[in-house]
């Protein structure tokens, strides 16, 4: 394990002294009407101090400076900056034989991620051996009962204590420093006895980028007068500090690992095989304190002993909180269904996962609804007290905890668990997605093997099709359930994990009685649907299959002068990246609307072509190859434009000249900061585009002529913003702009009064729904109807579309009431089946059917260009909880629409296609919209 950089003690003390002066402790009251030249004081004012000792009766080594000394203020009386927290831990690591500091990565903004190992000095010396033995419990294959008993008898348990994964939930990180100091400086039996049983890992500041963003907002809004209002702007503003640099909610990133921080934490936690994982959060300011046991529903893969352990931990914590008179509760809303949270990942890995939700202060005292004023330091104390209570519980039950941990890992590896397996096809069309999925599995220690030709028995694919037997080509990957991380395999890769019937019944009753239920997060998440890769669940193949040896990659790129053109296959997700990189270098790129053949290779619809004769760059070959390297695209050099078959020649009208996208991404209120972050991350990291972030609050001040793509992230109340600027937006679109809106913003843009789109919200055209559905059915059936030629020429055949002339009737008010009732059953996040128009430029790189992620109550209906449309019938739902009312509203509705308006276009996505960065399949649609849209869907003037 690599320790992070260790500066000298003198350097650390100098840094902390400077910081302490900057954020010094209580200042004298300034004279009314003047600031008296004094800096503003942050944190708890003198009138609202919490003076209780965090560790009453404990003794500490005076040679280890306390957090109070290092900060120049009582620990937890104000928010400590990330640099202060890091400097304190570096100081302690240098001074204490009980602590070792280890780095596990850096954030996007370059801040170090690190954790502190706290243990008896002799155990730190023997750490590698101890972790090796814990690893034998984590992978118990071949471990005898006698060996296991010996290990459990002598090994310490490991507790991973992590705090403030949401950067604006600050009390956890401030508590982490106090906790760590107590464990390394404590000299009494309350600490030494605990360390006889445990190794404690403290991950003090899981989201330093978000924390610093939030603290800067609070400090910038602070004044001399203390504000107790929980909802004031003095406690942060858009985009707040919840997410990381790209605003991802990292507590929901544990499946896909999009964030740098998550990937670093995967690797770090796995090294220690912990038995307890605590995740310290904050919740709404007017609340108290929540911890586990968890509410229903419970994911079926969670260990059977988990709730009992959570109950024991809560019992001991309750005794501590009762002594202070603090409010707390369990089992009310934090359920155990979603496997994508920190504690869920830990529990599925065999540990006991625990959540803390301390009422949020925002770094200053808060007045609750009762009138009670809670100092910030009291909230920090709550996190400290909960942490110590849980550590004492597991220390006292070390042997039992290790025994249950081993049992959970053994159960995952048991032969009976090995009956089924997940199989991933070679997927040559989407190598990037496949590689990304395998990297996700590798990062979490999930075993897999790539094998030769394979016959699967009893196989079901991601669309629900079942085959008794199916031949799978060489290069497929098998992920078996029977392995130490088998619970994660099932939780993350099962296509359709269904909630228990009793829970669904209760949820239904709550929705009908009160208009809202208990589900607050997505109900579908599996990686097969999210990545839209060909895959199956099947009976587990034999274990003695031959390994697959991939053919060597042939370099078909060239910058030889004889090259006529260069091509990139359109199936690859690297194609839009290549187009963006090439156009940024001034290269002219064409998009094909048909597949073609060249150099013995079949290029899919949506492939890219760079013709030498159209580009005047002197080093064109070098530039094209540089764009390919930057994008990861496989470049093929072609020496002729003549097709070897019936496909199009390369100089004809089946190739559309693209235009370099000049992108503006709207931000700030009323857009959702996390959903904005998903789109932002995709533009920046996945596409590598140049873009401008535009402030929605100053939208009228921008010269829109500088952009040919504008993106509206999901948001609520976007209609007002659109109404204020509808004329300008309409003129911009008609002049050649591509306007892209996602989720609720797309629904607001579909308001007829704005005049920006002919798409309509389901709720606005209730009496016309039969007409829209009939039109949709005809669109989906296009090209599949067999023509009765005799009847055609005899003039006796049916006239397609006659039924569309039938006027819809009904009581509008009754229809509105019915629709309002049905909206309460909106899905919280499901995978639905969508039919894909294979002739539309927007759908390049997709199949005829694709899974799409959908959430919310907004159904879009359209009789025009709908490249991606939801299907009807029982095949609509692929995964997640979809009530019949929601299915009725969503069937045959539009997922993605494209409307030409003047020289421009409007593109609507019914839900965020880049949701949480894990929806690789629909993200391709967004890439196409942004990169190809200005040329393929809009009209740019031909140069003179």
TrEMBL record:
Keyword Hydrolase found: yes
GO biological process: proteolysis
Stored InterPro entries: Class_I_gatase-like, Peptidase_M14
Matching Pfam families: Peptidase_M14 (PF00246)
GO MF assignments: metallocarboxypeptidase activity; zinc ion binding
Keywords, comma-separated and alphabetical: Carboxypeptidase, Hydrolase, Protease, Signal
Residues covered by the Peptidase M14 domain: 93-257
Domain of life: Bacteria
TM ranges: none
Signal peptide positions on this chain: 1-30
Record protein name field: Zinc carboxypeptidase
Source organism (scientific name): Engelhardtia mirabilis
